[in-house]
Design a protein that fits this description.
The complex is a heterodimer.
Chain A lengths: L3 H33 L1 E2 L9 E2 L3 H8 L3 H30 L6 H9 L6 H12 L6 H8 L7 H4 L1 H26 L3 H9 L4 H28 L4 H5 L12 H11 L3 H26 L6
Antiparallel strand pairs in A: 1-2
Helix pairs in contact in A: 1-13, 2-13, 3-8, 3-10, 3-12, 5-8, 8-10, 9-10, 10-13, 12-13
Chain B lengths: L3 E10 L2 E11 L4 E5 L6 H9 L6 E6 L2 E2 L10 E4 L11 H11 L4 H14 L15 H13 L5 E5 L7 H18 L2 E6 L2 H7 L2 E6 L2 E6 L1 H6 L4 H6 L6 E4 L1 H5 L4 E4 L4 E17 L3 E8 L3 E8 L9 E6 L4 E3 L7
Parallel strand pairs in B: 3-8, 3-9, 6-7, 7-8
Antiparallel strand pairs in B: 1-2, 1-4, 4-5, 9-10, 11-12, 12-17, 13-14, 13-16, 14-15
The chains are: A mainly alpha, B alpha+beta.
Chain lengths: ~290, ~325
Amino acid sequence: MSTHSSRLAARLMVAPSVALLLIWMIVPLAMTLYYSFRFYRLLSPDRTGWVGFNNYLWFMNAPDFWLALFNTLTLVGGVLIITVILGTLIALLIDQPVKGQGLLRILIIAPFFVMPPVAASIWENLFMHPQNGLFSAVSRGFGAQPILFLEDYPMLSVIGIVSWEWLPFATLILLTALQSLSSEQLEAAEMDGASAFSRFRYIILPHMTRAITVVILIQTIFLLGIFGEIYTTTQGGPGSASTTLPYMIFKQAIVAKDIGRAAAGGIIAVILANIVAYFLMRGLGRNLDS
Amino acid sequence: MGKIQLTAVRKSFGEVDVIPGIDLTIENGEFVVFVGPSGCGKSTLLRLIAGLEDTTSGVIDIDGKDATNLPPARRGLAMVFQSYALYPHMTVRKNIAFPLKMAGMDQAEQDKRVERAAKVLNLTSYLDRRPGQLSGGQRQRVAIGRAIVREPSAFLFDEPLSNLDAALRVGMRQEISELHQSLKTTMIYVTHDQVEAMTMADKIVVLNAGRIEQVGAPLELYNFPCNLFVAGFIGSPKMNLIEGAEAAKHKAHTIGIRPEHITVGDGPWEGVVGLSEHLGSDSFLKVSVEGIGTLTVRAPGEVHARHGDRVRLAPAGKIHRFDATGLAI
Protein backbone atom coordinates (compact mmCIF):
# COMPACT_ATOMS: atom_id res chain seq x y z
CA MET A 1 0.00 0.00 0.00
CA SER A 2 2.57 2.55 -0.91
CA THR A 3 2.27 3.08 -4.61
CA HIS A 4 2.15 6.64 -5.81
CA SER A 5 -1.61 6.57 -6.37
CA SER A 6 -2.43 4.92 -3.05
CA ARG A 7 -0.40 7.53 -1.15
CA LEU A 8 -2.21 10.27 -3.03
CA ALA A 9 -5.57 8.69 -2.24
CA ALA A 10 -4.63 8.43 1.43
CA ARG A 11 -3.75 12.11 1.56
CA LEU A 12 -6.95 13.10 -0.19
CA MET A 13 -9.00 11.09 2.27
CA VAL A 14 -7.47 12.55 5.43
CA ALA A 15 -7.49 16.06 3.93
CA PRO A 16 -11.07 16.98 5.00
CA SER A 17 -10.50 16.12 8.67
CA VAL A 18 -7.14 17.87 8.70
CA ALA A 19 -8.73 20.95 7.12
CA LEU A 20 -11.61 20.90 9.62
CA LEU A 21 -9.25 20.59 12.59
CA LEU A 22 -7.10 23.39 11.24
CA ILE A 23 -10.10 25.74 10.85
CA TRP A 24 -11.39 24.69 14.27
CA MET A 25 -8.10 25.74 15.81
CA ILE A 26 -7.10 28.67 13.67
CA VAL A 27 -10.33 30.71 13.69
CA PRO A 28 -10.60 31.22 17.48
CA LEU A 29 -6.87 31.81 17.71
CA ALA A 30 -6.94 34.35 14.91
CA MET A 31 -9.93 36.15 16.44
CA THR A 32 -8.26 36.30 19.85
CA LEU A 33 -5.15 37.65 18.22
CA TYR A 34 -7.23 40.23 16.34
CA TYR A 35 -9.09 41.42 19.46
CA SER A 36 -5.88 41.58 21.48
CA PHE A 37 -4.77 44.53 19.34
CA ARG A 38 -8.19 46.26 19.41
CA PHE A 39 -9.90 48.59 21.84
CA TYR A 40 -13.05 46.58 22.55
CA ARG A 41 -15.11 47.05 25.74
CA LEU A 42 -18.61 45.64 25.97
CA LEU A 43 -19.70 48.63 28.09
CA SER A 44 -18.78 51.07 25.33
CA PRO A 45 -19.21 49.12 22.13
CA ASP A 46 -19.14 52.23 19.92
CA ARG A 47 -15.56 53.13 20.76
CA THR A 48 -13.31 50.81 18.74
CA GLY A 49 -9.93 51.09 17.12
CA TRP A 50 -6.41 49.73 16.94
CA VAL A 51 -4.32 50.16 20.07
CA GLY A 52 -1.09 48.42 19.12
CA PHE A 53 0.54 46.60 22.04
CA ASN A 54 -1.24 48.66 24.69
CA ASN A 55 -3.48 45.77 25.75
CA TYR A 56 -0.43 43.57 26.28
CA LEU A 57 1.44 46.28 28.16
CA TRP A 58 -1.54 46.92 30.39
CA PHE A 59 -2.01 43.21 31.12
CA MET A 60 1.64 42.63 31.94
CA ASN A 61 1.80 45.74 34.11
CA ALA A 62 -1.36 44.81 35.98
CA PRO A 63 -0.55 44.43 39.69
CA ASP A 64 -1.73 40.80 39.75
CA PHE A 65 0.01 39.59 36.60
CA TRP A 66 3.26 38.22 38.04
CA LEU A 67 1.46 36.76 41.04
CA ALA A 68 -1.02 35.08 38.68
CA LEU A 69 1.82 33.71 36.58
CA PHE A 70 3.55 32.39 39.68
CA ASN A 71 0.30 30.90 41.00
CA THR A 72 -0.37 29.17 37.67
CA LEU A 73 3.05 27.53 37.68
CA THR A 74 2.76 26.65 41.39
CA LEU A 75 -0.59 25.00 40.76
CA VAL A 76 0.75 22.97 37.84
CA GLY A 77 3.97 22.03 39.62
CA GLY A 78 2.33 21.23 42.95
CA VAL A 79 -0.37 19.05 41.46
CA LEU A 80 2.16 17.23 39.25
CA ILE A 81 4.43 16.43 42.19
CA ILE A 82 1.57 15.21 44.38
CA THR A 83 -0.19 13.16 41.71
CA VAL A 84 2.95 11.49 40.32
CA ILE A 85 4.37 10.52 43.71
CA LEU A 86 1.08 9.46 45.30
CA GLY A 87 -0.08 7.92 42.02
CA THR A 88 3.03 5.73 41.87
CA LEU A 89 2.60 4.61 45.46
CA ILE A 90 -1.12 3.88 45.08
CA ALA A 91 -0.48 2.03 41.82
CA LEU A 92 2.12 -0.14 43.59
CA LEU A 93 -0.40 -0.78 46.36
CA ILE A 94 -3.41 -1.74 44.24
CA ASP A 95 -1.26 -3.85 41.94
CA GLN A 96 -1.05 -6.35 44.81
CA PRO A 97 -3.61 -9.14 44.58
CA VAL A 98 -6.37 -8.52 47.15
CA LYS A 99 -9.97 -9.57 47.55
CA GLY A 100 -12.43 -7.16 45.94
CA GLN A 101 -9.78 -5.78 43.63
CA GLY A 102 -12.30 -4.71 40.99
CA LEU A 103 -14.38 -2.70 43.47
CA LEU A 104 -11.26 -1.17 45.00
CA ARG A 105 -10.06 0.03 41.62
CA ILE A 106 -13.44 1.57 40.76
CA LEU A 107 -13.42 3.42 44.12
CA ILE A 108 -9.95 4.76 43.43
CA ILE A 109 -10.90 5.94 39.96
CA ALA A 110 -14.19 7.49 41.11
CA PRO A 111 -12.98 11.06 41.84
CA PHE A 112 -12.08 11.45 38.18
CA PHE A 113 -15.75 11.21 37.24
CA VAL A 114 -16.76 14.10 39.52
CA MET A 115 -16.93 17.34 37.54
CA PRO A 116 -14.56 20.08 38.76
CA PRO A 117 -17.08 22.56 40.27
CA VAL A 118 -18.84 19.72 42.10
CA ALA A 119 -15.55 18.38 43.44
CA ALA A 120 -14.58 21.87 44.57
CA SER A 121 -17.98 22.36 46.26
CA ILE A 122 -17.68 19.05 48.07
CA TRP A 123 -14.25 19.99 49.39
CA GLU A 124 -15.26 23.52 50.28
CA ASN A 125 -18.44 22.63 52.12
CA LEU A 126 -17.92 19.12 53.46
CA PHE A 127 -14.21 19.12 54.29
CA MET A 128 -12.74 22.61 54.54
CA HIS A 129 -15.70 24.54 55.90
CA PRO A 130 -14.72 26.25 59.18
CA GLN A 131 -18.00 25.30 60.90
CA ASN A 132 -19.45 22.26 59.14
CA GLY A 133 -16.36 20.75 57.61
CA LEU A 134 -14.88 17.41 58.56
CA PHE A 135 -11.43 18.91 59.07
CA SER A 136 -12.70 21.53 61.49
CA ALA A 137 -14.57 18.83 63.40
CA VAL A 138 -11.32 16.87 63.68
CA SER A 139 -9.46 19.99 64.81
CA ARG A 140 -12.09 20.76 67.43
CA GLY A 141 -11.97 17.13 68.51
CA PHE A 142 -8.34 17.70 69.43
CA GLY A 143 -9.25 21.00 71.07
CA ALA A 144 -7.56 23.08 68.38
CA GLN A 145 -8.83 26.01 66.38
CA PRO A 146 -10.20 24.99 62.97
CA ILE A 147 -7.85 25.83 60.14
CA LEU A 148 -9.30 28.39 57.74
CA PHE A 149 -8.15 26.59 54.63
CA LEU A 150 -9.56 28.84 51.92
CA GLU A 151 -8.68 32.05 53.79
CA ASP A 152 -5.23 31.25 55.13
CA TYR A 153 -3.92 28.75 52.58
CA PRO A 154 -5.94 29.41 49.41
CA MET A 155 -3.32 28.21 46.90
CA LEU A 156 -2.48 25.08 48.88
CA SER A 157 -6.19 24.31 49.23
CA VAL A 158 -6.76 24.62 45.50
CA ILE A 159 -3.70 22.44 44.83
CA GLY A 160 -5.13 19.85 47.23
CA ILE A 161 -8.53 19.82 45.54
CA VAL A 162 -7.11 19.62 42.04
CA SER A 163 -4.67 16.88 43.11
CA TRP A 164 -7.58 14.84 44.46
CA GLU A 165 -9.30 15.13 41.10
CA TRP A 166 -6.25 14.19 39.03
CA LEU A 167 -4.81 11.48 41.24
CA PRO A 168 -7.02 8.76 39.70
CA PHE A 169 -5.81 9.64 36.21
CA ALA A 170 -2.16 9.37 37.24
CA THR A 171 -2.82 6.20 39.22
CA LEU A 172 -4.60 4.55 36.32
CA ILE A 173 -1.87 5.26 33.76
CA LEU A 174 0.89 4.29 36.17
CA LEU A 175 -0.97 1.11 37.15
CA THR A 176 -1.21 -0.05 33.55
CA ALA A 177 2.50 0.65 33.12
CA LEU A 178 3.20 -1.38 36.23
CA GLN A 179 1.13 -4.28 34.97
CA SER A 180 3.07 -4.39 31.70
CA LEU A 181 6.31 -5.11 33.55
CA SER A 182 7.25 -8.74 33.02
CA SER A 183 7.21 -10.68 36.27
CA GLU A 184 10.31 -12.58 35.13
CA GLN A 185 12.31 -9.34 35.28
CA LEU A 186 11.28 -8.86 38.90
CA GLU A 187 12.02 -12.47 39.69
CA ALA A 188 15.41 -12.19 38.01
CA ALA A 189 16.14 -9.12 40.13
CA GLU A 190 15.02 -11.01 43.21
CA MET A 191 17.41 -13.86 42.35
CA ASP A 192 20.12 -11.26 41.77
CA GLY A 193 19.74 -10.22 45.37
CA ALA A 194 17.85 -6.95 44.91
CA SER A 195 15.85 -5.86 47.94
CA ALA A 196 12.27 -4.62 47.52
CA PHE A 197 13.53 -1.03 47.44
CA SER A 198 16.28 -1.82 44.92
CA ARG A 199 13.76 -3.60 42.70
CA PHE A 200 11.63 -0.46 42.77
CA ARG A 201 14.58 1.85 42.19
CA TYR A 202 16.37 -0.11 39.44
CA ILE A 203 13.63 -2.12 37.70
CA ILE A 204 10.16 -0.72 38.33
CA LEU A 205 10.91 3.01 38.24
CA PRO A 206 12.92 2.93 34.97
CA HIS A 207 10.15 0.83 33.45
CA MET A 208 7.63 3.51 34.44
CA THR A 209 9.50 6.58 33.19
CA ARG A 210 7.60 6.62 29.94
CA ALA A 211 4.21 6.45 31.67
CA ILE A 212 5.28 9.14 34.14
CA THR A 213 6.27 11.33 31.19
CA VAL A 214 2.87 10.82 29.60
CA VAL A 215 1.14 11.71 32.87
CA ILE A 216 3.22 14.88 33.25
CA LEU A 217 2.64 16.03 29.66
CA ILE A 218 -1.11 15.39 29.61
CA GLN A 219 -1.73 16.81 33.08
CA THR A 220 0.29 19.95 32.33
CA ILE A 221 -1.95 20.69 29.35
CA PHE A 222 -5.08 20.44 31.48
CA LEU A 223 -3.70 22.02 34.64
CA LEU A 224 -2.59 25.20 32.86
CA GLY A 225 -6.28 25.91 32.24
CA ILE A 226 -7.68 25.10 35.69
CA PHE A 227 -10.54 27.50 36.36
CA GLY A 228 -13.69 25.86 37.78
CA GLU A 229 -12.15 24.90 41.13
CA ILE A 230 -10.92 28.45 41.77
CA TYR A 231 -14.18 30.02 40.64
CA THR A 232 -16.19 27.75 42.96
CA THR A 233 -14.00 28.08 46.05
CA THR A 234 -11.81 31.14 46.48
CA GLN A 235 -12.86 33.34 43.56
CA GLY A 236 -9.20 34.15 43.15
CA GLY A 237 -8.97 35.50 46.67
CA PRO A 238 -8.50 36.44 49.39
CA GLY A 239 -7.38 39.54 47.56
CA SER A 240 -5.55 38.04 44.61
CA ALA A 241 -3.82 35.29 46.57
CA SER A 242 -5.18 32.46 44.44
CA THR A 243 -5.61 34.25 41.12
CA THR A 244 -4.16 32.32 38.22
CA LEU A 245 -3.72 33.42 34.63
CA PRO A 246 -6.99 31.83 33.39
CA TYR A 247 -8.87 33.37 36.32
CA MET A 248 -7.34 36.79 35.63
CA ILE A 249 -8.42 36.56 32.00
CA PHE A 250 -11.91 35.58 33.10
CA LYS A 251 -12.10 38.59 35.42
CA GLN A 252 -10.97 40.89 32.65
CA ALA A 253 -13.42 39.50 30.09
CA ILE A 254 -16.53 38.80 32.13
CA VAL A 255 -16.29 41.09 35.17
CA ALA A 256 -14.58 44.08 33.58
CA LYS A 257 -16.13 43.32 30.19
CA ASP A 258 -12.88 44.31 28.51
CA ILE A 259 -12.50 41.92 25.56
CA GLY A 260 -9.36 43.53 24.15
CA ARG A 261 -7.24 43.22 27.29
CA ALA A 262 -8.62 39.74 28.08
CA ALA A 263 -7.68 38.63 24.57
CA ALA A 264 -4.15 39.93 25.14
CA GLY A 265 -4.05 37.90 28.36
CA GLY A 266 -5.22 34.86 26.43
CA ILE A 267 -2.41 35.21 23.93
CA ILE A 268 0.09 35.58 26.78
CA ALA A 269 -1.30 32.36 28.28
CA VAL A 270 -0.88 30.60 24.92
CA ILE A 271 2.73 31.77 24.75
CA LEU A 272 3.33 30.60 28.33
CA ALA A 273 1.83 27.20 27.53
CA ASN A 274 4.14 26.87 24.56
CA ILE A 275 7.20 27.80 26.61
CA VAL A 276 6.25 25.18 29.20
CA ALA A 277 5.61 22.62 26.46
CA TYR A 278 8.97 23.37 24.86
CA PHE A 279 10.91 22.81 28.06
CA LEU A 280 8.89 19.72 28.96
CA MET A 281 9.51 18.15 25.57
CA ARG A 282 13.19 19.03 25.73
CA GLY A 283 13.54 17.57 29.18
CA LEU A 284 11.26 14.57 28.93
CA GLY A 285 10.69 14.00 25.22
CA ARG A 286 13.48 11.44 24.89
CA ASN A 287 11.64 9.21 27.39
CA LEU A 288 8.94 8.78 24.77
CA ASP A 289 11.27 7.21 22.20
CA SER A 290 11.49 3.50 22.70
CA MET B 1 29.73 -26.78 46.21
CA GLY B 2 26.27 -27.32 44.93
CA LYS B 3 24.53 -30.36 46.29
CA ILE B 4 20.77 -30.03 46.29
CA GLN B 5 18.52 -32.46 48.06
CA LEU B 6 14.74 -32.53 47.87
CA THR B 7 12.84 -34.51 50.47
CA ALA B 8 9.11 -35.13 50.03
CA VAL B 9 8.70 -31.76 48.35
CA ARG B 10 5.08 -31.04 47.63
CA LYS B 11 3.44 -28.08 45.89
CA SER B 12 -0.22 -27.40 45.42
CA PHE B 13 -2.00 -24.39 43.99
CA GLY B 14 -5.30 -24.32 45.86
CA GLU B 15 -6.85 -27.74 45.41
CA VAL B 16 -4.55 -28.82 42.60
CA ASP B 17 -1.50 -30.87 43.51
CA VAL B 18 1.02 -29.79 40.93
CA ILE B 19 3.78 -31.77 42.59
CA PRO B 20 2.40 -34.47 44.86
CA GLY B 21 5.74 -35.31 46.48
CA ILE B 22 9.26 -35.58 45.11
CA ASP B 23 12.50 -36.97 46.51
CA LEU B 24 15.58 -36.18 44.50
CA THR B 25 19.29 -35.71 45.09
CA ILE B 26 21.41 -33.60 42.77
CA GLU B 27 25.12 -34.15 43.32
CA ASN B 28 27.71 -31.40 43.25
CA GLY B 29 28.87 -30.62 39.71
CA GLU B 30 26.18 -32.63 37.98
CA PHE B 31 24.32 -31.48 34.88
CA VAL B 32 20.75 -32.52 35.60
CA VAL B 33 17.97 -32.10 33.06
CA PHE B 34 14.31 -32.07 34.04
CA VAL B 35 12.36 -33.21 31.02
CA GLY B 36 8.69 -33.91 30.48
CA PRO B 37 5.67 -32.82 28.50
CA SER B 38 4.30 -29.33 29.08
CA GLY B 39 2.37 -29.00 32.32
CA CYS B 40 4.28 -31.82 34.02
CA GLY B 41 5.52 -29.52 36.79
CA LYS B 42 9.16 -29.30 35.72
CA SER B 43 9.24 -25.49 35.72
CA THR B 44 7.41 -25.40 39.04
CA LEU B 45 9.99 -27.77 40.51
CA LEU B 46 12.78 -25.48 39.30
CA ARG B 47 11.04 -22.43 40.77
CA LEU B 48 10.68 -24.26 44.08
CA ILE B 49 14.42 -24.89 44.11
CA ALA B 50 15.05 -21.24 43.17
CA GLY B 51 12.78 -20.05 45.94
CA LEU B 52 10.44 -18.15 43.63
CA GLU B 53 7.59 -20.38 44.84
CA ASP B 54 6.97 -21.58 48.39
CA THR B 55 6.82 -25.30 49.01
CA THR B 56 3.55 -26.59 50.42
CA SER B 57 5.49 -29.16 52.44
CA GLY B 58 8.81 -30.93 52.31
CA VAL B 59 12.42 -29.88 52.70
CA ILE B 60 14.93 -28.43 50.25
CA ASP B 61 18.55 -28.74 51.35
CA ILE B 62 21.25 -26.81 49.54
CA ASP B 63 24.81 -27.76 50.48
CA GLY B 64 23.53 -29.57 53.53
CA LYS B 65 21.67 -26.56 54.91
CA ASP B 66 17.90 -26.30 55.06
CA ALA B 67 16.97 -23.68 52.45
CA THR B 68 13.24 -24.34 52.35
CA ASN B 69 12.33 -20.94 53.73
CA LEU B 70 15.30 -18.89 52.55
CA PRO B 71 14.57 -16.04 50.13
CA PRO B 72 15.87 -16.63 46.57
CA ALA B 73 18.79 -14.24 46.93
CA ARG B 74 20.23 -16.12 49.91
CA ARG B 75 20.22 -19.56 48.30
CA GLY B 76 23.33 -18.87 46.25
CA LEU B 77 21.68 -19.97 43.02
CA ALA B 78 21.52 -18.16 39.68
CA MET B 79 18.74 -18.55 37.18
CA VAL B 80 18.45 -18.05 33.42
CA PHE B 81 14.88 -17.42 32.37
CA GLN B 82 13.06 -18.48 29.22
CA SER B 83 12.46 -14.85 28.24
CA TYR B 84 16.04 -13.99 29.39
CA ALA B 85 14.50 -11.33 31.69
CA LEU B 86 17.21 -8.81 30.88
CA TYR B 87 16.74 -5.29 32.20
CA PRO B 88 15.91 -3.36 29.02
CA HIS B 89 16.98 0.09 30.26
CA MET B 90 20.45 -1.03 31.30
CA THR B 91 23.45 -1.68 29.07
CA VAL B 92 24.82 -5.19 28.81
CA ARG B 93 27.59 -4.17 31.22
CA LYS B 94 25.10 -2.96 33.82
CA ASN B 95 22.91 -6.01 33.32
CA ILE B 96 25.79 -8.35 34.04
CA ALA B 97 27.03 -6.21 36.93
CA PHE B 98 23.58 -5.91 38.54
CA PRO B 99 23.86 -8.87 40.94
CA LEU B 100 27.35 -7.66 41.95
CA LYS B 101 26.08 -4.15 42.55
CA MET B 102 23.24 -5.54 44.65
CA ALA B 103 25.80 -7.51 46.66
CA GLY B 104 27.59 -4.21 47.36
CA MET B 105 30.81 -5.21 45.61
CA ASP B 106 33.27 -2.38 44.88
CA GLN B 107 33.43 -0.97 41.36
CA ALA B 108 36.89 -2.28 40.46
CA GLU B 109 35.99 -5.85 41.36
CA GLN B 110 32.67 -5.50 39.48
CA ASP B 111 34.46 -4.35 36.33
CA LYS B 112 36.98 -7.16 36.58
CA ARG B 113 34.32 -9.83 36.89
CA VAL B 114 32.16 -8.37 34.14
CA GLU B 115 35.13 -8.24 31.76
CA ARG B 116 35.99 -11.82 32.57
CA ALA B 117 32.44 -13.06 32.01
CA ALA B 118 32.17 -11.06 28.79
CA LYS B 119 35.36 -12.64 27.50
CA VAL B 120 34.14 -16.15 28.27
CA LEU B 121 30.87 -15.47 26.47
CA ASN B 122 32.22 -13.42 23.53
CA LEU B 123 30.30 -10.33 24.63
CA THR B 124 33.19 -7.89 24.99
CA SER B 125 32.27 -5.79 21.96
CA TYR B 126 28.61 -5.57 23.00
CA LEU B 127 29.09 -4.39 26.58
CA ASP B 128 27.80 -0.88 25.96
CA ARG B 129 24.74 -1.88 23.96
CA ARG B 130 21.28 -2.36 25.34
CA PRO B 131 19.47 -5.70 25.24
CA GLY B 132 17.09 -4.38 22.58
CA GLN B 133 19.99 -4.02 20.15
CA LEU B 134 21.13 -7.63 20.51
CA SER B 135 20.10 -10.80 18.69
CA GLY B 136 18.38 -13.66 20.49
CA GLY B 137 21.57 -15.63 20.94
CA GLN B 138 23.44 -12.63 22.30
CA ARG B 139 20.67 -11.88 24.78
CA GLN B 140 20.85 -15.47 25.89
CA ARG B 141 24.57 -15.08 26.50
CA VAL B 142 24.00 -11.88 28.50
CA ALA B 143 21.51 -13.74 30.67
CA ILE B 144 24.09 -16.47 31.23
CA GLY B 145 26.73 -13.82 31.91
CA ARG B 146 24.53 -12.26 34.58
CA ALA B 147 24.27 -15.71 36.14
CA ILE B 148 27.98 -16.64 36.11
CA VAL B 149 29.40 -13.41 37.59
CA ARG B 150 27.84 -14.24 40.91
CA GLU B 151 29.75 -17.51 41.02
CA PRO B 152 26.67 -19.34 42.31
CA SER B 153 26.74 -22.83 43.76
CA ALA B 154 24.29 -23.96 41.08
CA PHE B 155 22.76 -22.67 37.87
CA LEU B 156 19.09 -23.05 37.06
CA PHE B 157 18.01 -22.88 33.42
CA ASP B 158 14.31 -22.61 32.59
CA GLU B 159 13.89 -23.65 28.95
CA PRO B 160 16.59 -21.17 27.92
CA LEU B 161 16.79 -22.18 24.27
CA SER B 162 13.13 -22.36 23.35
CA ASN B 163 13.07 -18.83 21.90
CA LEU B 164 16.03 -19.42 19.59
CA ASP B 165 15.95 -20.73 16.02
CA ALA B 166 17.06 -24.29 15.34
CA ALA B 167 20.62 -23.54 14.18
CA LEU B 168 21.34 -21.20 17.09
CA ARG B 169 19.91 -23.72 19.51
CA VAL B 170 22.49 -26.32 18.51
CA GLY B 171 25.26 -23.76 18.97
CA MET B 172 24.04 -22.56 22.37
CA ARG B 173 23.58 -26.15 23.49
CA GLN B 174 27.26 -26.75 22.90
CA GLU B 175 28.21 -23.47 24.58
CA ILE B 176 26.26 -24.34 27.70
CA SER B 177 27.82 -27.82 27.74
CA GLU B 178 31.29 -26.32 27.39
CA LEU B 179 30.51 -23.82 30.14
CA HIS B 180 29.59 -26.71 32.39
CA GLN B 181 32.86 -28.48 31.51
CA SER B 182 34.91 -25.43 32.42
CA LEU B 183 33.01 -24.23 35.51
CA LYS B 184 32.21 -27.69 36.88
CA THR B 185 29.26 -26.14 38.73
CA THR B 186 25.98 -27.91 39.33
CA MET B 187 23.46 -27.10 36.61
CA ILE B 188 19.76 -27.84 36.58
CA TYR B 189 18.19 -27.47 33.20
CA VAL B 190 14.49 -27.63 32.38
CA THR B 191 13.36 -28.48 28.87
CA HIS B 192 10.62 -30.24 26.98
CA ASP B 193 13.05 -31.03 24.17
CA GLN B 194 14.46 -34.52 24.60
CA VAL B 195 17.31 -33.82 22.19
CA GLU B 196 18.60 -31.16 24.61
CA ALA B 197 18.10 -33.58 27.47
CA MET B 198 19.92 -36.46 25.76
CA THR B 199 22.85 -34.38 24.51
CA MET B 200 23.58 -32.26 27.58
CA ALA B 201 22.65 -34.21 30.66
CA ASP B 202 24.73 -36.24 33.07
CA LYS B 203 21.45 -37.26 34.62
CA ILE B 204 17.95 -36.95 33.23
CA VAL B 205 14.89 -36.67 35.44
CA VAL B 206 11.76 -37.59 33.49
CA LEU B 207 8.69 -35.96 34.98
CA ASN B 208 5.05 -36.65 34.29
CA ALA B 209 2.11 -35.05 36.11
CA GLY B 210 4.37 -33.86 38.91
CA ARG B 211 5.88 -37.29 39.54
CA ILE B 212 9.35 -38.56 38.75
CA GLU B 213 8.99 -41.40 36.26
CA GLN B 214 12.66 -42.29 36.03
CA VAL B 215 16.06 -40.85 36.88
CA GLY B 216 19.15 -41.94 35.01
CA ALA B 217 21.90 -41.29 32.51
CA PRO B 218 20.68 -40.55 28.97
CA LEU B 219 21.57 -43.93 27.50
CA GLU B 220 20.25 -45.74 30.53
CA LEU B 221 16.85 -44.20 29.87
CA TYR B 222 17.11 -45.01 26.20
CA ASN B 223 18.13 -48.62 26.72
CA PHE B 224 16.23 -49.47 29.87
CA PRO B 225 13.09 -47.36 30.20
CA CYS B 226 11.37 -48.47 33.36
CA ASN B 227 7.84 -47.86 32.15
CA LEU B 228 5.71 -47.09 29.12
CA PHE B 229 5.80 -43.33 29.66
CA VAL B 230 9.58 -43.10 29.61
CA ALA B 231 9.73 -45.57 26.72
CA GLY B 232 7.41 -43.40 24.68
CA PHE B 233 8.94 -40.09 25.73
CA ILE B 234 12.64 -40.77 25.21
CA GLY B 235 13.67 -41.47 21.63
CA SER B 236 12.69 -39.83 18.39
CA PRO B 237 10.65 -40.90 16.52
CA LYS B 238 8.66 -42.51 19.33
CA MET B 239 9.02 -46.17 20.19
CA ASN B 240 6.44 -48.45 18.53
CA LEU B 241 4.21 -49.99 21.20
CA ILE B 242 2.41 -53.17 20.24
CA GLU B 243 -0.29 -54.89 22.27
CA GLY B 244 -2.31 -58.06 21.76
CA ALA B 245 -1.28 -61.34 20.17
CA GLU B 246 2.14 -60.15 19.03
CA ALA B 247 2.93 -58.99 22.58
CA ALA B 248 1.63 -62.25 24.03
CA LYS B 249 4.23 -64.16 21.96
CA HIS B 250 6.85 -62.37 24.11
CA LYS B 251 4.92 -63.09 27.29
CA ALA B 252 4.14 -59.39 27.85
CA HIS B 253 1.09 -57.12 27.82
CA THR B 254 2.83 -54.57 25.64
CA ILE B 255 6.05 -54.74 23.70
CA GLY B 256 8.06 -51.82 22.46
CA ILE B 257 10.44 -51.64 19.51
CA ARG B 258 12.29 -48.50 18.58
CA PRO B 259 11.93 -47.39 14.93
CA GLU B 260 15.69 -47.73 14.46
CA HIS B 261 15.50 -51.36 15.59
CA ILE B 262 13.34 -52.50 12.68
CA THR B 263 14.89 -53.45 9.35
CA VAL B 264 13.26 -53.29 5.97
CA GLY B 265 13.70 -56.17 3.52
CA ASP B 266 12.91 -59.58 4.83
CA GLY B 267 11.02 -60.53 7.93
CA PRO B 268 7.91 -61.84 9.58
CA TRP B 269 5.77 -58.70 9.24
CA GLU B 270 4.29 -57.48 5.98
CA GLY B 271 2.60 -54.13 5.53
CA VAL B 272 1.70 -51.23 3.29
CA VAL B 273 3.74 -48.02 3.37
CA GLY B 274 1.49 -45.13 4.38
CA LEU B 275 4.02 -42.34 4.50
CA SER B 276 7.66 -42.14 3.65
CA GLU B 277 9.92 -39.25 4.62
CA HIS B 278 13.39 -39.07 3.14
CA LEU B 279 15.89 -36.97 5.05
CA GLY B 280 18.90 -38.16 3.09
CA SER B 281 20.73 -39.67 6.05
CA ASP B 282 17.63 -41.55 7.19
CA SER B 283 14.27 -42.59 5.84
CA PHE B 284 11.21 -42.68 8.05
CA LEU B 285 8.43 -45.03 6.95
CA LYS B 286 5.00 -45.47 8.44
CA VAL B 287 3.92 -48.97 7.64
CA SER B 288 0.48 -50.48 8.38
CA VAL B 289 0.98 -54.07 9.40
CA GLU B 290 -2.08 -56.30 9.68
CA GLY B 291 -2.76 -57.51 13.19
CA ILE B 292 -0.17 -55.16 14.71
CA GLY B 293 -1.03 -51.66 13.65
CA THR B 294 1.05 -48.83 12.25
CA LEU B 295 4.78 -49.12 12.80
CA THR B 296 7.28 -46.33 12.41
CA VAL B 297 10.52 -47.51 10.85
CA ARG B 298 13.78 -45.63 10.71
CA ALA B 299 16.03 -46.99 8.01
CA PRO B 300 19.52 -45.62 7.43
CA GLY B 301 20.23 -44.06 4.05
CA GLU B 302 17.82 -44.09 1.16
CA VAL B 303 15.09 -46.70 1.05
CA HIS B 304 13.14 -46.80 -2.16
CA ALA B 305 9.67 -47.32 -0.79
CA ARG B 306 6.77 -45.08 -1.72
CA HIS B 307 3.20 -44.66 -0.55
CA GLY B 308 1.26 -47.84 -1.26
CA ASP B 309 4.26 -50.17 -1.64
CA ARG B 310 4.27 -53.46 0.23
CA VAL B 311 7.34 -54.08 2.36
CA ARG B 312 8.49 -56.76 4.80
CA LEU B 313 9.85 -55.81 8.19
CA ALA B 314 11.88 -57.59 10.83
CA PRO B 315 12.68 -56.62 14.44
CA ALA B 316 16.42 -56.27 14.82
CA GLY B 317 17.35 -55.11 18.25
CA LYS B 318 16.09 -55.02 21.76
CA ILE B 319 12.40 -55.67 22.30
CA HIS B 320 11.17 -53.88 25.43
CA ARG B 321 8.52 -55.79 27.41
CA PHE B 322 5.93 -54.20 29.68
CA ASP B 323 3.29 -55.68 31.95
CA ALA B 324 -0.36 -54.65 32.16
CA THR B 325 0.41 -51.78 34.56
CA GLY B 326 2.96 -50.33 32.13
CA LEU B 327 6.07 -51.29 34.08
CA ALA B 328 9.05 -52.85 32.31
CA ILE B 329 9.56 -56.57 32.79
